[in-house]
Design brief:
By secondary structure, the protein is of the alpha+beta class. It has nine helices and 19 strands. The chain has a domain of about 190 residues: RlpA-like domain (Barwin-like endoglucanases, Beta Barrel), CATH 2.40.40. It is globular.
């Protein structure tokens, strides 16, 4: 059985590109006139497909097979046959994908062919299990009083699957915002997972969703997403643009960090404009990298976050765009293995770039 795919155009940071995604045939029914899957296209229309490093596609495919092969007959067949592929045979792997997958276009709202591609990475922070003068900024565990709210109690009007809150005197309330959690009352005191030495680094860890922390004894531990407070994500980069502090052309992770460092008296107020707050747990499999929403280790530059309400997790996608400050096409097949609070809509993806300086630069 052949799995169907979709094609779209999108924007990576500041450049226009294209994206193709793969879903089962049953998902296509009735979708042609809606945002999402549209008409089929030939593999020859995927610019750069012939030049992709096809041998790199097998490991992320095999990693996700245990999560998919028992959910759909087509995936079971694909995963069984993928086990017999030679890991270093690029031609065989390329032909395998062409045999089992069919590209389809993706259309956005109002038949739009444009969208946004961004990037994220696995940051390295400095930390301690004990609060000290240096390590004074907490990363919190999932609080015991954080609950999932029913649709009728969706107080913040977010997606029902993300509705969170707390019960106070028998009444459902929205959970604490970033300003409340980090404010002087510290309602989550005693629930610290560990402490880090930079408020800004902790803030950006919340945006990335997972990372590494080098402890005072030199050991490195992983921290991963455990839960979220239910508040909608707000990009402070947009606020800086509206405040005319950074131009739209120059907005990036690096420029935002530089502004926060240069404006310590205004940094907390700006960060609190984003009420979303992430809670973490410890990860033991740090060599494999962080796990995404599909619960498989993410592969640098082969895993992306998507809107799972439109693109099923596990779907391969074809990405054709440009990296920041580059005119060279960035074209490759990737896999939908993660989600994110800011990743909404059909023509929207967030590329995982891995760890290290290059990853941070590309994710900026």
């Amino acid at each position: 059985m052949k799995i169907q795919v979709k094609l779209t155009r999108t924007v990576t940071l500041k450049t226009i590109g294209k994206i193709f995604t793969f879903v089962s045939l049953s998902t296509l029914i009735g979708c042609a006139s809606k945002p999402g899957i549209s008409s089929a296209v030939n593999w020859s229309k995927l610019n750069g497909w012939q030049q992709d490093q096809h041998s790199q596609l097998l490991p992320p495919l095999l990693l996700q097979c245990p999560k998919l092969q028992n959910k759909q007959a087509a995936w079971k067949t694909i995963c069984q046959q993928a086990q017999s592929l030679a890991s270093d045979d690029s031609i065989q792997i390329k032909e395998f994908f062409q045999k089992h997958f069919q590209p389809h276009k993706i259309v956005g709202n109002n038949s739009s062919k444009t969208g946004m591609i961004t990037g994220y990475y696995e940051p390295l922070l400095q930390g301690s299990y004990v609060k000290t003068a240096r390590f004074s900024y907490p990363l919190y565990k999932k609080p015991d009083n954080l609950i999932k709210l029913s649709a009728s109690n969706n107080l913040l009007k977010v997606k029902d699957s993300r509705a969170r809150g707390r019960i106070h005197l028998g009444q459902a309330l929205a959970y604490y915002s970033r300003a409340q959690i980090d404010g002087p009352n510290r309602p989550l005191a005693g629930n610290e997972l560990l402490w880090v030495d930079s408020s800004d680094d902790a803030f950006f860890l919340h945006i990335q969703g997972s990372g590494l922390v080098q402890m005072t004894d030199g050991s490195i531990v992983g921290v991963g997403y455990a839960e979220q407070n239910g508040h909608p994500y707000r990009a402070i980069g947009r606020d800086l643009i509206e405040m005319q502090q950074i131009s739209k052309e120059n907005i990036s992770l690096q420029s935002i960090k530089a502004w926060l460092t240069a404006n310590p008296n205004k940094a907390t107020q700006l960060k609190n404009k984003n009420p979303s707050y992430i809670f973490f747990n410890l990860r033991t499999d740090i060599e494999q990298g962080p796990r995404g929403s599909l619960n498989v280790p993410l592969t640098p530059e082969r895993s992306v976050a998507v809107d799972r309400n439109i693109i099923p997790l596990g779907s391969p996608l074809w990405l054709s765009t440009q990296l920041p400050n580059s005119s060279v096409p960035y074209q490759r097949l990737v896999f939908a293995q993660d989600t994110g609070g800011a990743i909404n809509g059909p023509i929207r993806a967030d590329v995982f770039f891995g760890r290290g300086e290059r990853a941070e630069t590309l994710a900026g």
